[in-house]
Amino acid sequence: MPMFFRDSDTLRRAAALYRNDAHYALALVTLFLAVSGFIAMHHEMWRDEIQAWLLARDSASIFQLFAHLKYEGHPGLWHLCLMPLTRITASPIIMQVFHLSIAGATVYLFARYSPFNRLQKFLFGFGYFALYEYAILARNYALGLLLITIFCILFKKRYERPIWGGVTLFFLAHTSVHALILTISISFALMCEYLYRRRNETCLENSRGTWIGGALISIGILTAILQLKPPPDTGFAVAWKFEYDAAHLNKVINLITHAYFPLPKAVMGFWNSHQLETYALFQAVQTPLCCLIILCGILLLLKRPTALLIYLIATLGLLTFFYVKYLGSMRHHGFLFLTFILAIWIYRDCPEINLPFNRFAEAASRLLVPVFTVILIFHVIGGITAARMDIRHVFSYGKQTAAYIQAQGMQEIPMVGESDFAVSTIVGYLQKKQIYYARGSRFGSFVRWDNARNHAVADARVIEAAKTLSTETSQDVLIILNRALDTELREQHRLTTLVQFTGSIVGDEGFYLYLMPGL
Fold it and tell me: Is the pLDDT at 1 greater than 60, yes or no?
C-alpha cells in the first residue's frame, strides 16, 4: 500500500480516537455533574467554606480583601473569584454551583487529555478527592486541581508556548500554600531542564517567551509568599516546629497513606478519619509502606529527571510543611497524591536519560498500570463512603439553624455568638451583615484570626455581652452557642431556650439558641 494511504489511515484513526475521547469525556463529566450535584444538594456548608464567602462579600475593595486575607494562611485567588458572585446574590449557594463547575471542568479535561486509560479516568473522576474533597466542599483547592490539570495539558508544548505555562503556574501559586509548594517544585525542575537543554542544544525555540514565562512564574511565587506573610497579631497556627521529634516525624510520613489510600470510616464522624489505621496489621506496616511508595515513585521516574525532580521536591516540601508548620487534614494531604499524578502524566514528555540499571525503572513501569488502577479503586471506595455519609448525616447545622431563625422572623434582631468560628456559618446562611462575637469582643461576620480571640469566653461573659447589647438597642437578643448553657444561668437571667441542633459530622457545628428578653 502506498505511503499516502497508510498515512491517511493513520490520520483517520487518530481523528476517530480524538473524537471518541471527546465523547467519552463529555459523557463522564455529565455523569460526574449529575452525581456531584445530587451530593451537593445534601451538603450543608461549614465554616471554612462560608469564611471565604464572607471575606469576599464583606470586603469593600480588592485592597481590603487582601488586608483581611493576611490572617487566612492562603493566597487570594479563590476569594477574588468569589467577589463578583457576592455582588450578584447574597446567597452562598451560588458558590457551590461555581465550585461544581470548576470540578466538572477538571474532570472533563482529565478525561479528555490525560494519558491514562478510560478505566483510570473514570476512577479518578469518582475518587475521594475529585468527587468529594475538591468538588462537594467548596474551597480553594478545586481551583488548584484545575490549574494543575491545565499545566499538565500544556506541558508537552512548554517550549513552544511557554507564556501560557507561566500564566498557569502564576495562578496556581495563588490558590493555596500547598499548591505554592508544588509550583516552586515545578519551577525549579523546569529551570534545571532548561539549563540542561541550553547547554546541550545549539538552538532553543521561543527563548524570549521562555524567559517571559519564567518571569511570570517567579512573580507568582513571590507575590504569593508576600500574601502569606502573617501580621504581628496573628493568632492561628503561629508555632513552628524545628526540633527533632521521632513520633511527630512518623506521623507526618504516615500521611502518605492518607493521600494514596483515602478510606474514611463509614460513620457519621467520617471526615478526616482513616479506616485502614483502625487495623493493627496496617499500623505495623504503615511507615514501611509509605517509604515503599516513595521508592517506587523514584524508580518509576528515574529515567526522566524533570518529572523525578518535581515529584521529590514537592513531596519533600509538603511533608516538611506538615512537620514544621501545620499537620493539616485530608484535603491538604491530597496534594501528595496530586504530585504523583502530575509526575506520571508529564513523564512521557520529559527528556530521557540512559541509566546502567534501567531494568528497575522498566519493571516499575510495567507495574504502574495495575498498581495505579488499584490505588484509584481505593479512592473510589473512599469517595462513595464520604458521599454516602454526607447524604445520610448533617455536615453542619449552620444551614438548619439559619432556616429556623428566619422561620421565626428573628433574623433582624441583635445576636451574640460564641464560638465565632462555628457561628460564622449561620451568619453566612442568614445573609446577615454582622453579629456580635463574644470571642474577640467585636461585631463582625467572618472570623478574624488574630490573637484577640485566642481564648474561649465563659458563658457568664457571653450573657453579660447580650445584656449590654439588649440595653443599648432596647430589643430582645438572640444568643447562639455551640454548647449548652447551665440551667442555673438560664434561670438567673430569664433566658428562653428556643431550640438545639446537635449531632453533625463537624461535631462543634451543632447549635443552641437562647433568647434574652429586652431590658
Answer: no
The rounded distance, in Å, linking the Cα atoms of 82 and 94 is 9
Q: What is the DSSP letter of 357?
A: T
Distances (CA, A) of 188 to 148, 182, 320, 362, 365: 16, 10, 17, 26, 25
Query: Within a 10 A sphere around the Cβ of 482, how many other Cβ atoms?
Result: 25
Collapsed DSSP state (helix, strand, coil) of residue 480: strand
Helix (H, G, I), strand (E, B) or coil at 496: strand
Segment 144-171, tens digit of pLDDT: 999 999 999 999 999 999 999 999 999 9
What is Dmax (Cα atoms) for the chain?
98
- β pairing state of 435-437 and 442-444: antiparallel
Under 8 Å between Cβ of 339 and 314 = yes
Other C-beta atoms lying within 10 Å of the C-beta of residue 111: 24
C-alpha span between 416 and 203 (Å, rounded): 68
pLDDT above 60 for 487: yes
Sort 218 into a burial class: Cβ within 10 Å, 0-12 / 13-18 / 19+: middle
Phi, psi of 274 (to 5 degrees): -140, 110
Dist. CA 20–CA 29, nearest whole Å: 14
**Ordered DSSP codes for 108-139:** HHHHHH-SS-HHHHHHHHTSIIIIIITTTS-S
AA identity, residue 138: A
What would the pLDDT profile of 8-21 be if each residue is shown by its tens digit? 455 455 455 556 78
pTM: 0.93
Angle between helices 358-392 and 280-301 (to 10 degrees): 130
Q: Tell me how far apart the alpha carbons of residues 171 and 166 are, in angstroms, rounded to a whole number.
A: 9
Task: Tell me what the mean pLDDT of segment 278-289 comes to.
Answer: 96
Place of cell 481551583: 143
Beta-carbon-side half-sphere exposure of residue 296 (alpha carbons within 13 Å)? 17
Consecutive H or E run containing 444: strand 442-444
What's the rounded mean pLDDT across residues 178-203?
Answer: 88
Residue of 183, 486, 147, 159 whose CA lies nearest to 313: 183
Q: Phi-psi region for residue 52, left (φ > 0), alpha (ψ -120 to 50) or beta?
A: alpha
Q: Which three cell numbers stand for residue 63?
A: 485592597
> What are the pLDDT digits (tens) for 364-411?
677 788 999 999 999 999 999 999 999 999 999 999 999 999 999 999
- Give one DSSP letter per residue of 289-322, joined into a string: HHHHHHHHHHHHHTT-HHHHHHHHHHHHHHHHHH
The x, y and z cell numbers of residue 193, run together, are 531542564
Dig out the grid coordinates for 59 from the structure: 470586603
CA-closest candidate to residue 217, choices 161, 170, 179, 154: 170
Boundaries of every domain in the chain: 3-392, 398-516
Could you tell me if 424 and 51 are in contact, meaning their C-beta atoms sit under 8 angstroms apart? yes
Segment 345-364 mean pLDDT: 79
Residue with cell 478519619: 273
Nearest partner of 129 among 139, 118, 115, 119, judged by Cα: 139
DSSP H or E run through 479? strand 477-481
